[in-house]
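Methods — Computational structure assignment.
A single polypeptide chain was analysed. Its primary sequence is given first, followed by the predicted tertiary structure written as structure tokens.
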Amino acid sequence: TGSTFNLRGEAIAGPLAAQKRRLRPIPAGNMFWFAWSVFFPGSEIWGRPERVRAAELPENKIGSPGCGGGRDCIPSLPNVGPPEGDLGWLKPEQTGYLADGDLVIGVFLDGVPRAYPHNILWWHEVANDHIGDRRFTVTFCPLTGSGVVFDGTAPARTFGVSGNLFNSNLVMYDRQSRSMWPQLWMGAVSGDERAAWLTQLPFTETTWARWRELHPDTLVLSDDTGFRAPYQLYPYGDYRTDNSDTFRVTTPAPDPLYPNKAMTFGIAD
């Protein structure tokens, strides 16, 4: 129609602007190349004739211990119980722990914008939240560089960190059935929920400055979480740039087409 859209997906000029048309977002996200190539072998690569190298994931996807203490060795937010009223929120002008260039996972559901900074998710990896009656879980695995947001409404699920890693990726467990769910597999691999799949929700991964520009009325996760963590400090040293380090040996091995830590934007439908 010749209409123009802004980065919020709103028609701002042309025939569709008068109708207040909005683009429908679909789930997608960033992760390190090694993680994409391991979890999504055979996938198409934009702009290239070849595909990701074909391979198979091992049948056992429960993984092995990645941090001492087992379940909740990395405390999710909130650490126990349902999410109502337990997450703390700040207005943009109150966020002293965030710099403009820090990355956030931005969720815009039912007209409500919220930001979940990497700074906090480095240390907690899972945040269970709700907007009205709509439950969802924001997840981020620092070792695979992957953020995914999952619907948690029907059936109702909240998640914690199991303490296991599968191919260096966060393995969650749901607090209702105690089943295990590798984040990038997006399905249960043990327990009563085995073979069930999670529903992804769309989100935006961008800088804190850009998210504020897109959504001036946003709230952002408070650093007053009840835990004493240095939320301005990335806890994994040079891991984000060291292409030789995938934390654990993966099965299959990463496709060598790109450097292991090349940031990759992927759609898995």
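Note: Residues 33-39 form the longest helix (7 residues).
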